[in-house]
Amino acid sequence: MKLTTLFDKNEFVITGEVGPIKGAISRDKSIEPICAIEALQLQQHVHAVNVTDNQSAVMRLGSLAASVRLQTNGIEPVYQLTCRDRNRLALQSDLLTAYSLGIDNVLLLTGDHIQLGDHKEAKPVFDLDSVQLCEMARGLNNGSDICGNSIENNMDMALGAVVNPNFEPLDLQLMKMKKKIDAGAEFFQTQAVYDVKLFEKFIKKAEKFNCPIQVGIVVLKSPQMGKFMNKNVSGIQVPDEWIDEIGSVAKEDHKKKAAEMAGRFIKEVKSMVQGVHIMPLGWADIVPDILEHAELN
């Protein structure tokens, strides 16, 4: 089901995220071992599961294959598609292929730079940026390719995009958000946010666009992870109080504390948004606890 249908019904949309394995999958109909345990742990608690596209520029199983296999097993996927590895021919072809194989939701992204990943000698493409990608996808929904040529059997996909509430200056990020909406984006998932006041500032400025927003949160697993993100992940800032709190408990209690912290944050901001996007990074088993703390169960 298209996520836009749920937004139109005023449902609070909950999505999770999994990363495909670094390798091929079996040719039977099971989801082992794509991201199987995580996906199955999420299935009963979310409306859909995002499938990352060579996240952090690390080569993995393609997001399209993983998305189709999840759907075959009754798990609604959100197919992620990045500009980094494909020119406009491949981007259009992959979108048409995804829709033809039954995929209803896509998240359109620029993609992490090659230098972050495990194939630093690769040549990045970036033929289009994320705004142009949204416009191209809308064209395919409307029956024409990027050159204006008519296509047979147009798509009907829900088009999602990403926005970063942490970005400074914020007005520039809001300008880009507006460009994506004008280009065809129908809903947004935010980059990871940890500061309620910062997020409230963003929402007060973004609400004028009247476009559904899911707040994004990456589960903070340890104080070391928080410090690493602050040093190495551009556009995300983990406050010291988050790092101190996750570090205040023994390592064996990190999962319990992480669920409590994430749930508390979601509870504080859920009235401002139309949904939440939880990125558990392998800790999908705590998502039910997160939602319980957020009072979303």
Write the layout of secondary structure elements.
Blueprint: H1 3-8, E1 13-18, H2 36-43, E2 48-51, H3 63-72, E3 77-82, H4 88-100, E4 105-109, H5 130-142, E5 158-163, H6 170-183, E6 187-192, H7 196-206, E7 213-218, H8 223-232, H9 240-246, H10 254-269, E8 275-279, H11 287-293
Parallel strand pairs: 1-2, 1-8, 2-3, 3-4, 4-5, 5-6, 6-7, 7-8
Helix pairs in contact: 4-5, 5-6, 8-9, 10-11
Task: Give an overview of the whole structure.
This protein is α/β, with parallel strands linked by helices and about 300 residues long. The protein is about 40% helix and about 15% strand. The protein has helices at about 5-10, 35-45, 65-70, 90-100, 130-140, 170-185, 195-205, 225-230, 240-245, 255-270, 285-295, and strands at about 15-20, 50, 75-80, 105-110, 160-165, 185-190, 215-220, 275-280. Strands 1-2-3-4-5-6-7-8 form an eight-stranded parallel beta barrel, surrounded by six helices. Strand 1 (about 15-20), helix 2 and strand 2 form a beta-alpha-beta unit. Helix 4 crosses helix 5 and helix 5 (about 130-140) packs parallel to helix 6. The longest helix has 16 residues, at about 255-270. The protein is globular and about 60 Å long. The chain starts with a helix and ends with a helix.
